[in-house]
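In keeping with the milestone schedule agreed at the kick-off meeting, the structural modelling team has produced records for the first pair of proteins. Each record is given below as a sequence line and a structure-token line. The laboratory manager (R.T.) confirmed that both were archived under the project's standard naming scheme.
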Amino acid sequence: MNIAMTIAPPTDDDTRWQIMRSRDRRYDGLFVMGVLTTGIYCRPSCPARPAKRENVRFFATSAQAEAAGLRACKRCCPNDVSREEKAVQEAVATIKRAEYPIKLSDLAAITGYTPSHFQRIFTRAIGLSPAAYARALRQSRVGDALTTAERVSDAVYDAGFNAPSRFYDATKGRMGMTPSAWKNGGQGVLIRWAVVPTALGEMLVAATEKGVCRLSFYEGVADLTARFPNAEMREGGEEFSALMAEVISVIENPSNSNLIPLDVQGTSFQEAVWQELRRIPVGETRSYAQIAAAVGKPGAMRATGSANGANPVAVLVPCHRVIRSDGALGGYAYGLDIKRKLLKAEGVATEV
């Protein structure tokens, strides 16, 4: 897996406008918005009331905005962003070089901020705290190494963990399957499964002891085995029946989907997309461009579509809530009829 290190500047004005509308702090310092009617320019997260689109012009830097005759907004102070951005970049580089975890106080001292202030700056820019970012980076390196290393322990040490136990503690509750199981097609993992009829068609649900690892339509145990060839497959069971009932209830009441535990794996980019999908409220949709911008990759709409399609747990990770910018449904792994029915059940009007 490859973790995204920085947020790329958006390359088109439509994306910049959507970022301004959402007041996304992660893009502060990457561009500014000039309001021609007031003669001021602002950072993307400025809390002031949005101007009309026809009165807005975007600039890559504050210097360009000032060259066009605009002055800095006194409310959001866009010129203060550069120091924060440089501090975050310096911290990211330091974390990448480090062989061992770095204390927040040490990162703050390097960048010249107090620990609490720097924690806020870093989290706002990256979306993770410095400690969480460092853990995600090491976990990502393990994921890359597991595909080539002969032993799991080699991958763990190569990723910067000073003992396998440190890695297992750091990934507890996130990675679900152990690294060995991940590398070896579910080896040593028990997966319970069932296929049940629903209003949307036959639905396959499969789960490990940690959570649902597969939810799909018109698939069976053969498809599940192909994904996890070395796992032990066991149909049904009393505990699984209770989980199954919860999953089925989500079809009828999607607002409860985030209450069901998941056990899924993907690249860092895929997991970022899936997490963003789970933030879309019931009854709303997002475009592929909006999701790409939200995960810090505004130019990666095609990759976002691929991550959307690779979602292993339909409905629980609501990839059906992503549509095209023109309002068309776009694609769906299980057919547009199911996508249309899911959206209709959530109160979203779609084209015929």
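The second protein of the pair:
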Amino acid sequence: MSRAPQTVEHALGPIDRIPLGGGREFAVAGVRIAVFRPRAGGVRATAAECPHRGGRMADGFTGMGAVVCPVHGWGFRLDTGEAVVGEGAIACHPVRLGPGGEILVTLPAPARTG
């Protein structure tokens, strides 16, 4: 019988840490992620690096539900990670705003050893 992977929700601070329409990179439990605050509202989280040349996704341009890598212009949907320009996809992470506007991202729990 297979068990579902365990996850942990991490608090990253208030949404005001990210400018409207912008992104910010966070290191969470050994994982680098990019968190975005779309102008349309809400919050999104993706892998921190573009799969093409390692561009910092948090420094990318956002709009129309996508982020464009600032290095070579590959674009990815913020909700699914699918490429809209370029190839492949980036990982997306479950993220939400808490009642007080705190960013809460869910990541896999660290593997237990021993």
